[in-house]
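Late entry, evening session. Most of the bench is empty. Finally got around to the prediction I had been postponing all week. Sequence below, unchanged from the version circulated by S.P.
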Amino acid sequence: MPATLLATKRVEKPWGRSHLWPGFADPAPGGEKIGEVWFQTPHAGEPELLIKYLFTSEKLSVQVHPTDEAARAAGYPRGKDEAWVILAAEPHATIALGTKAPMTREELRAAALDGSIEHLLDWKPVKAGDFIYSRAGVIHAIGPGLTLVEVQQNVDLTYRLYDYGSDRELHLDAGVAVSDPVPFVPLPTPARAPADENRTILAEGPKFVLERWPAGHRVVELPAGMTGWLIPLVGEGVADGAAFRAGECLTIEGRCEIEADGGTDVLLAYPGNKRL
């Protein structure tokens, strides 16, 4: 099947921005701020993964996502692991990941109710080029001043634990039940790919693999029935006759020849926990 350029869905958010990122049109003057751009297949609920860009000007809510098992018990097709590739970060930008010290779920609930949870989280500094894989169960909050690509399991399921006094709905019972209120432990660093493969393995699972490539010619062979997501961060190129440029996203299946022009920087995401 040829490479398919995906449609975009622009999502207004109170924490979004009026000035986005090269490849994305800014909202109209006086219009609502854009916080997310989703890349959607024609049947948006079916693919295993979902790709987004995020543009933040304020802190996002303190939140958590369930595991596959917990999500299915609640009637959803899957849980949500997610990963972030930081494209740009203002000075002192941070992302909260896990708690500074282990907490009981009772302590977590009390901290969410009185607002102290914001100060009990581990706010880690981030910069352009950083990569983070956040498993289901990790309590987290993305800070302001960031542009990032998010790769996630495809489910619109977020439990808010705290939202800085806003009137948005919280999900304390469900969120506390699926939270793992302990310090964040990153995934082990993947073994380096052979130098002649000219790729960097950012993550190997547990729910998806994420690779990063420079410019050049590449042939990708995906197993039957598997979909891959090609995300050009910089530059442009062609995948099986479909032209692409930064700010777009394509799905690919089977054997796909990709030619990325000089200066291009590309991500490839696919389900599973083993690299191709």
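Two things to note before I forget:
The mean pLDDT is 95.
The longest strand covers residues 7-17.
Will write this up properly tomorrow.
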